[in-house]
Write a structure and sequence with these properties.
The complex is a heterodimer.
Chain A: E1 2-4, E2 7-11, H1 15-39, H2 41-47, H3 50-74, H4 77-88, H5 92-98, H6 110-138, H7 147-171, H8 178-183, E3 186-188, H9 189-195, H10 197-204
Chain B: H1 3-33, H2 38-43, E1 68-72, E2 78-80, H3 82-87, E3 91-98, E4 104-113, H4 115-120, E5 130-135, E6 141-145, H5 146-149, E7 155-160, E8 163-164, E9 174-176, E10 189-195
Parallel strand pairs in B: 1-10
Antiparallel strand pairs in B: 1-2, 3-4, 4-7, 5-6, 5-10, 7-8, 7-9
Classes of the chains: A mainly alpha, B alpha+beta.
Chain lengths: 207, 221
């Protein structure tokens, strides 16, 4: 634990975790913006440069996938694997938290765990359905009935999740301190004790 | 259930549902659509049109200045004004529209002119094999063989759903070829060239799309 002034800080996210978050965030935002122009008739008419927008969308997807692979390949894989094990474990306290009751939380609370699980599954499904949209245009045998529906449904649900995520990370007074963990890597110990008590207790026990 | 099983089940469950959705997603949405209010469907174009263009803006054609030229292997080239086109024998049809990128619109009400009537005055020469439709959106074009263009449901549409075509949908005239993917249904048609060779190449065919645009079982038909 480090100290700046009177505030004790605890490290929450390492460089690899933050890189993965921001690579995914920038890729998602680039593809969301271009995707909505391709998808919503009003925006398509307004912008019109469909071929350009489509190319930006496709190359964003390619760049996103390459960057994700690079972060995992060059980053702290052991740490990422530990994160995933932690996120997959929805324990009794997480289940209480998700039912809206107060329960001590670990480094990730129940909602954050669910958000990562959904985001990871969505990322794979976006890539899969996007690939078949691309291929189906060129070879009609791969033009499956529901590919577009899946890609669009993912977009709309992910858009909803993004709005909630941004609200909690930027606006909501008691949770927005978490943003510091994803930018600078550390958070105030007092804040962590309030929101992630089990994690701080683990740190104190030297785990 | 073990703690980690729950998280993994959620992750794999979403993946499985999404992968199944590639094949059954549209049916599932149709089922869901029957319980979702129309107001929601109006905001989300889940069952509606997308607007596709190749240029930097939607062509805006002055109806007074618009001319449709019929040229090529004809007895006498003809140039129609929009009023001329509207004076030709008018037919109506209800047909579905399928895009090669995977979306469809059902039961579109079109009105316009059959190609046989459109070409009647110009007179197609016996050597004619195909029609090339040239769009005001340069360099968009596409081609139908003469038998394809003379199919019972192929049309030069002037109206859609009871109104003149909107600019986004190809005002004032577009091709409608319901049993082929939408890239054959050229919008903003300004010129019809009667060709003596079977040349199916058009804008998208040059960019990798199939020259045979018949809709198969692949698109849920």
């Amino acid at each position: 634990m480090t100290r700046t002034g009177s505030e004790r800080l605890v490290p929450r996210f390492g460089a690899t975790e933050r890189a993965l978050h921001w690579v995914h965030a920038s890729g998602f935002l680039a593809m969301l913006a271009t995707g909505l122009v391709l998808y919503l008739p009003a925006l398509s008419e307004l912008v019109a440069r469909r071929n350009l927008v489509k190319n930006v969308h496709l190359f964003s997807a390619l760049g996103w996938a390459v960057a994700i692979v690079l972060v995992v390949a060059l980053g702290d894989r052991r740490r990422l694997a530990a994160d995933w094990r932690e996120i997959e474990a929805i324990d009794a306290d997480d289940r209480r938290f998700l039912r809206g009751r107060r329960a001590p939380q670990g480094r990730f609370n129940g909602g954050q765990k669910l958000n990562v699980l959904v985001t990871a599954a969505f990322a794979l499904l976006f890539a899969l359905s996007g690939f078949f949209l691309w291929l189906g245009e060129r070879d009609h045998r791969f033009l499956f009935d529901g590919t577009g529906t899946v890609h669009e449904t993912l977009t709309l649900v992910a858009l909803g999740l993004l709005v909630g995520h941004l609200y909690l990370a930027v606006i909501h007074p008691s949770t927005r301190h978490a943003l510091r963990g994803m930018t600078r890597g550390d958070v105030r110990e007092a804040w962590a004790r309030e929101h992630h008590r089990k994690w701080v207790e683990e740190l104190e026990r030297g785990l | 259930m073990h703690d980690r099983t729950i998280g993994r089940a959620a992750f794999l469950g979403i993946l499985g549902a999404g992968a199944a959705g590639l094949f059954f997603g549209r049916d599932a949405l149709r089922l869901a659509g029957s319980v979702v209010p129309d107001s929601v469907e109006a905001v989300v174009p889940a069952s509606g049109w997308r607007i596709y263009t190749i240029g930097s803006s939607i062509p805006s054609i002055d109806p007074q200045a618009y001319r449709l030229t019929i040229a090529g292997a004809v007895e006498r080239p003809v140039t129609y004004t929009l009023a001329d086109l509207r004076a030709l024998p008018r037919v109506q049809q209800v047909s579905d529209f399928h895009c090669v990128t995977g979306w469809s619109v059902s039961d579109v009400r079109w009105a316009g002119v059959r190609f046989r009537d459109l070409l009647d005055e110009a007179g197609v020469r016996p050597s004619a094999k195909a029609l090339r439709f040239v769009s005001d959106e340069v360099p968009y074009d596409d081609t139908l063989s003469l038998p394809q263009a003379f199919a019972a449901d192929a049309l030069l549409a002037l109206d859609m759903d009871g109104k003149p075509l909107s600019e986004a949908h190809g005002f004032p005239a577009r091709v409608v070829m319901p049993r082929m993917y939408g890239y054959k249904s050229v919008k903003w048609v300004t010129r019809v060239e009667v060709q003596t060779h079977l040349d199916h190449v058009g804008y998208w065919e040059l960019r990798g799309y199939d020259e045979d645009a018949w809709i198969g079982d692949s698109n849920g038909l």
